[in-house]
Amino acid sequence: MKKRNRLIKIGHRGAKGFVLENTISSIEHAIKLGSESVEIDVYRCNSGEIVVFHDETLERLAKSNERIEDLNLAEIQEVKLKGDLYIPTLEEVIEIANGRVEINIELKGVNTAIGTFELVSKALSTENWKHGDFLISSFIQEELIKYRELDSDILIGVLSETSPIEAIAFAKKIDAYAIHPNFKYLKKSEVEKIQKEGFKVFAYTIKTTLEKQRMKKMGVDGVFCDYPGRYTILKKALRRVQVPFLNSDK
Questions:
Q1: What angle do CA 93, 97, 98 make, to 5 degrees?
Q2: Helices marked H in the chain — which ranges?
Q3: Helix%, strand%, coil% for the chain, nearest 5
Q4: Could you say which DSSP state residue 167 is in?
Q5: Radius of gyration from C-alpha coordinates of the chain
Q6: DSSP label at 122?
Q7: All domains of the chain, ordered by start, with CATH?
Q8: Percentage of the chain with pLDDT > 70?
Q9: Torsions phi, psi for 146 (to 5 deg)
Q10: Does the structure show a pLDDT above 90 at 150?
Q11: What does the pLDDT look like over 21-49, one tens digit per residue?
Q12: CB 231 within 8 A of CB 34
């Protein structure tokens, strides 16, 4: 990711709060709102392709109890999500994004590292993408270890549900770029400790302006947002009526 002297806002699953998550429409909406980075989730389906989806089953978004990993690509392509949207492949997302936005790929399922590496490598062979445009993250340590073995230069983020301090040792082991803690449990002292150890802190998942401001005051480097662009739109509106609401992000 590009070095910035301000808080990085990462569109969570595209623009999850506005358009159905992890769909092409959601990613396009995040780009339209000015997002410089988006986060997506991937699984390896039964026929081997890497598909973009968050849940283990289709129950929440397609009212089916089938597991995404048990379906082949042809079957997945027949699935209709809410709003008549569909489940894209990672290859399709990369092709459509076409270097317009940085992509954080979260490896949700097992056996996702190799297939994801192959697709990212293919993208990096073109003039539209460079290593800093991709960030690979996961809760699954084995997948991150495998990816690091495949690519010594890719940016890696270590996801942490509870204590992010406990993630530091593993982050050092795989030469990670960032640690991604749950913002709900994050403390300023932890942010400072992680950054002192040389890692960026990208906190998940922010839904309101107040939550974003709390993270900004803590000094995190970036936040995953369900509503990318909402804060900027609100701040511009308040400035128009001359309400001294928030300091500049710059």
A1: 115
A2: 24-32, 59-62, 73-77, 90-97, 113-124, 141-150, 168-173, 188-196, 209-218, 230-240
A3: 40, 20, 40
A4: G
A5: 18
A6: H
A7: 8-240 (3.20.20.190)
A8: 90
A9: -60, -45
A10: yes
A11: 999 999 999 999 999 999 999 999 999 99
A12: no
* Per-residue pLDDT tens digits for 70-87: 999 999 999 999 999 999
Contact 142, 131 (CB under 8 A): no
Distance CA 107, CA 141 (A): 10
SS3 208: coil
In angstroms, the CA 99 to CA 224 distance is 20
Indicate the SS3 state at residue 240.
helix
| Tokens of residue 128, six digits | 């539209």
**Which residue do the tokens 């509106």 mark?**
237
Question: What residue has token string 């770029």?
Answer: 177
Residue 246: how many other CB atoms lie within 10 Å? 15
Give the amino acid at 202: F
